[in-house]
Design brief:
This protein has about 280 residues and is of the alpha/beta class. About 40% of the residues lie in helices and about 20% in strands. The strands form two sheets. It has a six-stranded parallel sheet with strand order 1-4-3-2-5-6, sandwiched between helices. It has a three-stranded antiparallel sheet with strand order 7-8-9, with helices on one face. Helix 6 (about 120-135) crosses helix 7 and helix 9 (about 195-210) runs antiparallel to helix 10. The mean pLDDT is about 100. The structure holds pantoate (PAF). Pantoate binds near residues 26 and 27.
């Protein structure tokens, strides 16, 4: 595996790759969820590039940028063992040099859910994805379903800006108790980790209510909230049922809907979602 830290070096190396290229953008501290993205990229492309960059511009001032978990050596070993071709690890100065002042703003789809609460977040995500796409020129890029709105934002950017990149989504990888894999899970204490199983239970409640014929979004989110609130360590940020395309809240589920949530467990904010189809 070639490890590249500079943008010109990455671009030069990219020119040598003859064949389809898959990009897996990550912020490092890799887990099985990331490795599932790597596996998909390897299945469908001649070369796989993984980028590892904790992107400062997608974190708010009160958020966890400084303490976001990092373990470069561990990540390098994982990717090497998996047979990744190129690992791109730029520095913040390389990605955002002095005078950097160009941003990619995706409107509309960013008004709801995560975008409504973390108003800076998708500006940072879209901008960094755009830069990574320009630097690595992939044919395909791989994202996890856990960040459902991120997928929609990147897809919209690619469509609106006529980028020739296929955005592929890989299902959420879960722990045995259903907790979605996330680098942020490492923030949880033992008690908080135990409590975190309630997120998936709440999502399953939504699926069960739909299966029993419930279509009223308020009733379903009510059922989910009751489950979340049964766990004293959990503070609900939001539980929402939205159209899976527009991400606008809906009153009744008529076909396919995204059921999503964000909760605080202690100081850790976790998100998760499932799609329900009726
Ligand atoms: O999902 C992530 O890890 C990040 O948001 C991404 C896509 C790597 C951009 O920094």
């Amino acid at each position: 595996m070639k490890i590249v830290r500079g943008i010109p070096e990455m671009q030069a190396l990219r020119r040598e790759l003859k064949g389809s290229v898959g990009l897996v953008p990550t912020m490092g501290y890799l887990h099985r969820g990331h490795m599932a993205l790597v596996g998909k990229s390897q299945e469908f492309n001649a070369f796989t590039i993984v980028s590892m960059f904790v992107n400062p511009t997608q974190f708010g001032p009160q958020e966890d940028f400084a303490k976001y978990p990092r373990d470069e050596q561990h990540d390098i070993k994982l990717l090497e063992d998996a047979g990744v071709d190129v690992l791109f690890i730029p520095s913040a100065d390389e990605m955002y040099p002095d005078g950097f002042d160009s941003w990619v703003e995706v409107r509309g789809i960013t008004d709801t859910l995560e975008g409504a609460r973390r108003t800076w977040h998708f500006l940072g995500v879209a901008t960094i994805c755009n830069k990574l796409f320009n630097i690595t020129a992939p044919h395909r890029a791989y994202f996890g379903q856990k960040d459902a709105q991120q997928v929609q934002v990147v897809r919209k950017m690619v469509r609106d800006l006529n980028m020739s990149i296929e955005i592929d989504v890989v299902p959420t990888i879960r722990e045995e108790d259903g907790l979605a894999m996330s680098s942020r899970n490492t923030y949880l204490s033992i008690d908080e980790r135990r409590a975190a199983a309630v997120l998936y239970k709440a999502l399953l409640k939504a699926r069960e209510m739909c299966a029993f014929g419930e279509r009223d979004a308020k009733k379903i989110t009510g059922g989910m909230t009751a489950i979340l609130q049964s766990e004293p360590l959990v503070k609900v940020d939001y539980v929402a049922i939205t159209d899976s395309g527009s991400l606008q809240e809906i009153e009744y589920i008529q076909s396919s809907a995204l059921v999503s949530m964000a909760v605080f467990i202690g100081r850790t904010r976790l998100i998760d979602n499932i799609t329900v189809t009726v």
